[in-house]
C-alpha cells in the first residue's frame, strides 16, 4: 500500500486546526506545503502569521496576498486549512447571471442534505468578484481585530475559479459554517477570499 492510499479515503476532508483557534489568534503554521499536498489536491486556508489566503485545485496550491497569486513552495506553512481529493459527484451548468445569494440557494437545492460537508468548485466568467486578503500579523491579535487591516480587491469581468467548502451549521467553530470560498483568475495571477 502506498502512502497516498493510507492517508486518504474517498470522501474524506482533512483539516488542520479549527476556525475557533484561528479566530483566537493561533497563527503559527503547523504543516508545510509538502505535508498539505499529501492530504488532498483541492482546498483553502491561510498561512503562518495570517500572511495571505490559500487556494488549491488540480494539485496546484497558491498563496493569495494583496490580490496577487503565487505558487506555494515547500517552506510555506499553514495554521489552518481544509483539503480533500476533489471528486465531483454533482455537476451543474448555470446558464444565466446570478448573485451570490441566489447561487447559494441553488447549491443547497443540488445537494442531498445541509448536514453534510461538501467541496465546491465553480469555473466561470464573473461580472464581479469582491474579495479580501488577510495581512501578515506580527502580534497575534484575535482574527476579528486582524481583519480590520485586510485589503479588499474587486475583480470585474473576470474568468476564473472559485474553490471552497460547505460546512453544516452544527460544525461552526470547527470550520466556517455555511459557504467559505476563495477565488483565483484563469491566469493564476490574482485572487482572494470571496465576499460576494
Largest sheet: 6 strands, antiparallel
Secondary structural class: mainly beta
The share of residues in helices is 10-25%
Q: Based on DSSP secondary structure assignment, what is the total number of beta strands?
A: 12
Order of helices and strands: HEHEHEEEEEEHEHEEE
Overall geometric form: globular
Q: What portion of residues belong to β-strands?
A: 35-45%
Total count of helical runs of at least 4 residues:
5
Low-pLDDT segments: none
Radius of gyration: 16 Å
Average per-residue pLDDT, rounded, comes to 91
N→C terminal distance: 43 Å
What is the topology, as strand order, of the major beta sheet? Answer: 1-8-3-4-5-6
Topology of this protein?
Elements: H1 3-7, E1 13-16, H2 19-23, E2 31-32, H3 33-36, E3 42-46, E4 53-57, E5 60-65, E6 68-71, E7 77-78, E8 81-84, H4 100-110, E9 118-133, H5 143-146, E10 151-167, E11 178-185, E12 191-194
Antiparallel strand pairs: 1-8, 2-7, 3-4, 3-8, 4-5, 5-6, 9-10, 9-12, 10-11, 11-12
Describe this structure in words.
- The protein has helices at residues 3-7, 19-23, 33-36, 100-110, 143-146, and strands at residues 13-16, 31-32, 42-46, 53-57, 60-65, 68-71, 77-78, 81-84, 118-133, 151-167, 178-185, 191-194.
- The protein has a 6-stranded antiparallel sheet with strand order 1-8-3-4-5-6, with no helix packed on it.
- The chain has 5 helices and 12 strands.
- The longest helix has 11 residues, at 100-110.
- It is mostly beta strands.
Structure described in brief:
With 196 residues, the chain is mainly beta. The protein has helices at residues 3-7, 19-23, 33-36, 100-110, 143-146; strands spanning 13-16, 31-32, 42-46, 53-57, 60-65, 68-71, 77-78, 81-84, 118-133, 151-167, 178-185, 191-194.
